[in-house]
Amino acid sequence: MPGDRPKLRLGTYMCPSHPVELYELFMKYLEEELPCEATLVYESRGGGPLPDRVDPFTADTLDIAFVTPTAYVKMQDSKNPHVELLPVAAVFKHPRNLDQQPGYFSDIIIHVDYQKHVKQLLDLRGCIWAYSSEHSLSGSAVVLKTLKEQGENASFFGNMIKSGSHLKSVQMVLSKQAEAAAIDANTLSYNKKYLQDGGKDIIVLESIGPLPPYPIVVNSRLSNSLKEKITQAFLKMHSCRLWGERLNTFGILKMVSNSEDAYMKERELRNSIKNTSLGVAYY
Which domain of life is it from (predicted)? Predict the structure, then answer.
C-alpha cells in the first residue's frame, strides 16, 4: 500500500552549479527502487546547512542531503550526532579521471582569444580573475594552494571579482568581464551545451585535482536497514541500463563506495592556506 511506504526528505545544496535535474533523478530513482515517497528541497545560498538557520538534521527536517566537501567537513567538526556520511559517491567523466575514481576536478578556464599568450596558470599574473566564493574548494582554495606551491599568493592576480557561482564565473569569462576563473569541472561539462556556440570560446587551461568526492549525508535517525537499502540502491544505479543512461547525461559513470577518509585531503588543503584568501579570511 502507498501509505506504508517510507517517506524520504531529500535536500540539495549543490545547485545552481549542478543541475537540479540530477537530484530530481536521484529522488525518482529512490522512489522506484526502495520503494518510497520522496520530496526534494533546493537551497542555493550555501554548500550545506546555513549557519544562521536551524540545522535541518538537528531539527529532523531532512533525511538525505547532497552537500559540498567543505560543508561536510564543517558538519563533521560540529559533531552533530544526527549527521552521517552515506558511504557512496559518484564517479564523473573527466579527461584526467582515467582510473574512474570518485572525486572531481577544478578546471582553470580562459577565453579562446587569450590562448596565444596564456599556456599555464602562471601566465595569468595580473589578470582579472573571477571566483565563485572565497569558501569554494574548486573555485578558490585549490587555486591558492597551487599558487602557494609556486611561491605566489592571492596578490598574483590583478583584480579579483566574486561572481557568486561557478556558472556566473563561466559567463564572465565567456563575455570577457574576467580573463580567467577556476570552476567545478562538472559544472562546465554539463552546461557547455547551453552556452553560446556550445561554449567553443572557453578553453580549459589546466585541471587541478582530484578533489574529494561530493558527499551524500544521511540522518542518523533512519533505521540501519533503510540506510543500507539506500546505499545499495545507489551502488547499483548505473548497472540498470535505463538509470545508467540517465546518469550518463549528467556525466556520471557510476556510483562507488565512499568513506570519511576521503575528506582528510580537504582538511589538509585548507590548513595549507590558512590566513590566505581570494576574498575574506577562511574560518
Answer: Eukaryota
